[in-house]
Amino acid sequence: MILRPRPTAWQLLYILRGTVLLLVLPKVLGISLLSCLAVLSIRMDWLHLPSSTAVPMSLLGLALSIFLGFRNNASYDRWWEARKHWGALIIELRSLARDAVALLDDGADPGTPVRGHHDARRLVHRGIAFAHALAGYLRGYDEGDNLARYLAPDELARVRASINPPDALLREMAQEFATLRRTGRLTDITWQTLNERVGGLSAVLAACERIRFTPLPFAYTVLLHRTAYLFCLLLPFGLAELLGWMAPVLAAALAYTFFGLDALGDELENPFAHVPNGLPLRALARTAERGLLEALGEPLPEPLLPQSYLLM
Amino acid sequence: MILRPRPTAWQLLYILRGTVLLLVLPKVLGISLLSCLAVLSIRMDWLHLPSSTAVPMSLLGLALSIFLGFRNNASYDRWWEARKHWGALIIELRSLARDAVALLDDGADPGTPVRGHHDARRLVHRGIAFAHALAGYLRGYDEGDNLARYLAPDELARVRASINPPDALLREMAQEFATLRRTGRLTDITWQTLNERVGGLSAVLAACERIRFTPLPFAYTVLLHRTAYLFCLLLPFGLAELLGWMAPVLAAALAYTFFGLDALGDELENPFAHVPNGLPLRALARTAERGLLEALGEPLPEPLLPQSYLLM
Amino acid sequence: MILRPRPTAWQLLYILRGTVLLLVLPKVLGISLLSCLAVLSIRMDWLHLPSSTAVPMSLLGLALSIFLGFRNNASYDRWWEARKHWGALIIELRSLARDAVALLDDGADPGTPVRGHHDARRLVHRGIAFAHALAGYLRGYDEGDNLARYLAPDELARVRASINPPDALLREMAQEFATLRRTGRLTDITWQTLNERVGGLSAVLAACERIRFTPLPFAYTVLLHRTAYLFCLLLPFGLAELLGWMAPVLAAALAYTFFGLDALGDELENPFAHVPNGLPLRALARTAERGLLEALGEPLPEPLLPQSYLLM
Amino acid sequence: MILRPRPTAWQLLYILRGTVLLLVLPKVLGISLLSCLAVLSIRMDWLHLPSSTAVPMSLLGLALSIFLGFRNNASYDRWWEARKHWGALIIELRSLARDAVALLDDGADPGTPVRGHHDARRLVHRGIAFAHALAGYLRGYDEGDNLARYLAPDELARVRASINPPDALLREMAQEFATLRRTGRLTDITWQTLNERVGGLSAVLAACERIRFTPLPFAYTVLLHRTAYLFCLLLPFGLAELLGWMAPVLAAALAYTFFGLDALGDELENPFAHVPNGLPLRALARTAERGLLEALGEPLPEPLLPQSYLLM
Amino acid sequence: MILRPRPTAWQLLYILRGTVLLLVLPKVLGISLLSCLAVLSIRMDWLHLPSSTAVPMSLLGLALSIFLGFRNNASYDRWWEARKHWGALIIELRSLARDAVALLDDGADPGTPVRGHHDARRLVHRGIAFAHALAGYLRGYDEGDNLARYLAPDELARVRASINPPDALLREMAQEFATLRRTGRLTDITWQTLNERVGGLSAVLAACERIRFTPLPFAYTVLLHRTAYLFCLLLPFGLAELLGWMAPVLAAALAYTFFGLDALGDELENPFAHVPNGLPLRALARTAERGLLEALGEPLPEPLLPQSYLLM
């Protein structure tokens, strides 16, 4: 995620990082060059074009704008929905930690005041591990180091052997809550309260999997790509006769807008990708980690800060 | 569902699988041919057309774009909502398995440590059967083999005799939970927790039925089809005088865009159909199956992988 | 609801049932005729019209398209929301039946194994009656026959005397659940579970009442109707000079699209009306009925099937 | 709220009540007059205008249509959301009444069969008072009479002294439920069930306060008003040269559409205002009142009916 | 937030406060000046421009309108969603206060009638502190004074030392509820009820953090800014030849609309910023404070009122 102050008009000229400019520049230049050729061909009388293509071209362009608008809306909705699920992750983890500490770590356990603290600590650490495991799972990274810091070796081994490490962690949580209930450390109601947090994390996991592994329908994407190419390739021939040497300028402006929107939709479609406009999963996992460690009263790692405006 | 890397500009030229190109090609060629005829007729002086039809045509085209945009949005929403319900299915099944194993299979059942394991196993297997039964029910397939692997023969018979096999499975689940509660194996609260999962699966089932059996209003679809045909059939006559021999090119581009969007809307409208852009119900059911078997510690079947980019 | 295969291009020419064609045909013909008159008047020199009305006309038409688009979206949302509530009805009824049978009809009631079955049966029958009563209430029909089949005579009398029969049925349900709880047949938690179903049905009822009795704001509808008429009546004069004898064709195409969208919005606005594009309340109630009777193991009535593609 | 049959084409000409026609007529006439002046000035050679303003004007008009479309959507969403909250109010009140009667008024209270009835009655009456108090609070009316009919004098005094009467009523409810629980008349679970209704009413209250006291962002409204004025004031000069004496007609049609949409957005923005297109809060409160009194078996007041199509 | 009556046509001319006029005026004047230069250059024959740029310009402008429309919709949704979360805050706090007072402050605590009142008071005061702490956290202010009034000194110290003061307050709440439950003052169910309020506040906090710290994707914003600049800078050259000295007027009107929408989107994107169109967090926190103090029967501070129409 790019975090920087609103760029000034001047900066808009040259900012590249996190924008789609570099991605679309070759295409824009190509269209502009094609326009020059078209104008030249007309001036040289190599080519005869009807002068009134502007209206049908603008009809095609308009249809394209409307469809690109809807599709970008859909891509942005995926991006924002993904962020909401990571927000829900933070809600669930904080609630888990808050309730686990309040219910178990009360210094009131008869005879063994330390046991409660240990139990709460293990539960909260497992929650932190879940956040890291989810980030790694969605990005295809191995978050082994972060897991090793918070899990016991045998649990770590079980989790890493799973086909779905975050889901394996949820099963470990549920097992532990069931054991605490069976041994009378949790009543039915307090067990239910804590177990609902596991259900909430499970919902976050499945929602993120849905966004990660189900792209927009292929036919939709291809149809829009094809229409965008069709439009931009016809553009030089539509504008050359009308505009003369202003055609390359306007064709470039239009190609930039349409290819830019198209590229942007591609980038937002997968919000978990490790790209500049992707969601900063590591920073979010670190935020959760710090909050949970504070709840335990343990020392906090540094927050992750943007590096040259980029937060990953 | 088509799963393949973003196609390059070059691939866009020839990719057919999973796109609507083949569906709309005959219509596009027809419109293009009609344009040629119209241009020819004008050149041959067989036909006299006003030269200023472009503006009213573009008004009709614009109205059509806007309405197609809204309708495609509605179709895509159905598709994505369907995917969300299958995500919810996975959430509910995993939670069911997690809680059933944690609550029942604890090796702590006095005297009969094995009984708990058997109970949990039967409950989880029934959950897997539900996923397969739902996929079969929505696609009109018989998933008998997959059911037989996870259900006892008498239960299988009851389920297959039902007018709604997934719903019959839910009743079996509810019966078993009620029995476990009555025999004291579940308390009221743990019964409530597990029974809520059955409620969640019931919600998924009814939502999928809604999407499957309630198409978009017929009048809506027909109105758009008719307007699209009207527009595309008038197009050659609107463009011929203006554009001359460029008319067939632009008419084809416009017809491709509009018929393409229209066909795409049709394809996304029923996300459970067994078509390239449909949801990969079998692969999703397999994903659920693998997760649930892992929760039981049983051997996993292979995941379903895309066959030449196509996942069913 | 119209249920038929996607019409072919050929069928689009003549399908009438369930489309809005008949509704808008008189208006379309009127506009077309007016166009002929306008062209004739110009040719006869009776009328002098500026030739450049196309641009302002297209501005008015575009504004109209956008607003019609938004309004049709709102109408469709009402229609789809209504269908969702009927989906929720089916979820709640099935869950009610599933839980009532599982919790009460267990053959384990000490001494009176039959009582449990009778209680469950009465509860489930009342649920079926609710579905029929709701359909009748929303459509203004008397569903007395369907109610009489499932309710005891005194209850039937109370329900029919009520100002809101479905709501009266919910009160009967709540009374019975409270009695079962008081007599110890339900514990607090199982009572809560069943009573939540009554709450869910109450939510469905109130949501359907909202959609049924609160139309879109009158001023919104009137403004759009007026703009549509204004536009279509000005159209002949805007196109006559430009297009000559092609004006009636294009005016008819435009009038068909705009009046058609307008009429479609009217039809979808009240999804419970007994019209071809309305929701098939009776068929949905029958679906619920069949599922609930199967849960009781009782004989099923036939499902309602579309009659010449029309399902009511 | 205006409730009347769909107006015929003929009625559209003269219906005023509940439409925004009267509001925008002066502006429309002004624009039309300005157009006449512009045409006259051109004919008289007092003014020279470029003839090709139509395209830039239509660009401005289109941008305006799109933004008005989005804003009207936002206003309508507020209106419909407000209606949904009043629907939720009815759900919560009916459920409160249903459960209060079923749980308390059972004639089974040992020794004092009457006490249960009195308790249920007081609870239900307080619910009715809540509906009236909310309507009064949102409209700035004093609903003292309606409150006095359903509240004891001391409670009425406390409620009317509060800064937020509906909220004060909710506190009274919560107090009474807590007392019933403390005295053993409600168990923890039945208390929880009834208390959740109070939470639901609290959610309705806060949501209505949000819609009532937070208008759309002022800058948004002003920008659209200014653009609408700009557009409509430039219109006569843009159309005069092109259209001659047809300019006043088209300018009026466009001004009617744009000012009308703008005025409509204003009217829907505050759905609780006491205007023709506002929500019929009194009628809704009366509907709730009648349903609750029926649940108690008490005599019902008449429903509020539309007066010359207008329901308040 | 600006709260003032709908401005009259006259006031629209000069109102500045809370509108984006001042922000965009320099740009609008710049574009207008550039137009004058372009017209002058043409008149002086310094520059030759094609006269038919209007159609491609309007295509670019239309694409821009559509994308700006979608983006403003997204910004407005963030703004309204933020307001909804503050509405949820008020719901949760009122419910917390209502239930805490009803359950604890009953004068029925055997022997120590005062203790219940003190407990309820401390819980409610902590709720008020949460509202102030959240406002301060989201706006980057120190709300120390408001916290000190409602928190004990040691708690205040802990909260202010936290990396996330509102979250620290939630942990204090959870601790206190757990203690009340452990000492038997709350049963499992009443504990659950009150603890769910803490969960609700946690959800509000995380949702506000999401909106506050995750801007719209940078690439989206930059693409729109660049397209808006491109369009407005090309505008003078597109209009000069066509419109002559009317070009500066129309260019200014268009630049005002597009730059205005763009600036408005920026302003609504961060609804917690301390700007005129931001949400009035302090006033909302004060509203919550007054309601909660009334629930305790304590004296109320004055409500915050708009200062020259501006409520912060």
UniProtKB/TrEMBL annotation, chains A, B, C, D, E:
PANTHER family, alphabetized: UPF0187 PROTEIN YNEE (PTHR33281), VOLTAGE-DEPENDENT ANION CHANNEL-FORMING PROTEIN YNEE (PTHR33281:SF19)
Localisation: Cell membrane
GO molecular function annotations of the record: chloride channel activity
Source organism of this protein record: Cystobacter fuscus (strain ATCC 25194 / DSM 2262 / NBRC 100088 / M29)
Name of the protein in its database record: Bestrophin
Transmembrane region(s): 12-40, 46-70
Top-level taxon of the source organism: Bacteria
Database matches in InterPro entries: YneE/VCCN1/2-like (IPR044669)
Pfam families the UniProt entry points to: Bestrophin_2 (PF25539)
UniProt keyword Transmembrane helix present: yes
